[in-house]
Fold:
Amino acid sequence: MAETAERKDSESPAPTEEMELVRRARRGDLEAYDDLVKRYQERIFATIYHMTSNHEDANDLAQESFIKAFQALKSFKGGSSFYTWLYRIAVNKTINFLKQRKNRMHMSLNDLDFNAEHDPDLMALISDKTPRRDAGLTELQEKLNAALMKLSEPHRLVVVLHDVQGQSHEEIAKVMDCNIGTVRSRLFYARQQLQGYLADYLK
Amino acid sequence: MSENEDNFEMLRRLLTLKRHEIPPPGYFNRFSGEVISRIRAGEADAPAGMSEGLAAQAPWLLKFLQLFEARPAFAVAFASALCLLLVFGIVFAERPDSAPQPLLQAMAQNDGGAPQLAAVSPTALPETTVQTGIIASTNPVLGLQPVASLFGQQNPLVMPVSFLSSGN
Structure:
């Protein structure tokens, strides 16, 4: 997931190749659609997972997003990239789900990968002589997810897309259908909020 | 903006932890297969299909319905308004437009003495009215004309007619 998060848009498949897959999928070619799913499954799943902090919900929502996208392929005009269009479907589905689930939220977190224990930045965060010294990575993970869940959906989405998945402001603006200024102000506000929630771990 | 980035450097480092949260091994090997098999099985449930159709046909209606989901208070207010509207509708429908006037009084008020419509049943008509051949009716053509009898009778009587032939 870390690798996919750092992928840039320039590394996305060639538009012509992608459009050919989309055209074939639109005609009902499930092999072509399988290729499209494989290209974007990790990023779509990761976004939904970071938004919900729940593995099972993320699994259901990611699958439903791909199914919905397949059913709606005929309405895809090609005004944006398939990736952006797919992202919008997944994000809207997730936000609608979160609004309905507001009062019965529970976390079901994925495990941390092996590399987390070797990440110098993270090691620095948990090994300094500060109040967070006793906190292990798992506790930090829980606190971080709990803090993220306190943000409103649009603010959480901006943080997830930018700070976790490494997307540009422009790309986020396209996905969220707003201007770049809005993305920047939301990001600033969301970070401020998070910094407040996680003050003990950021001293 | 770069100053802001510096202010949040620690937070950004902490957020990199999220990138290390990964699903169980082999999860993505199965994922696309599950999606495709669900598509094959036509697992598009009816409500989802409806909402997609609605989104394509009338997006404003879908937004309106989503507003109900997001704010239940709005749904309650809307339902109350509908009930109120229904009650007012019933009350106003049962109220007559104007009080019925007695036919003679209505005729007296008329300059030329021309007959007028009134919500009076034929049996309730005064005898004089019936004798002059004026029929009160909701039909403006029949009701306003004195009826000349085709059969030489001043007061046409309604007779029951049998269509059964006597031979059978």
Notes: Chain A touches chain B through 57 residues (CB under 8 Å). Chain A has two domains: 10-110, 118-203. DSSP finds ten helices and one strand in chain A. The beta strands of chain A are 111-112.
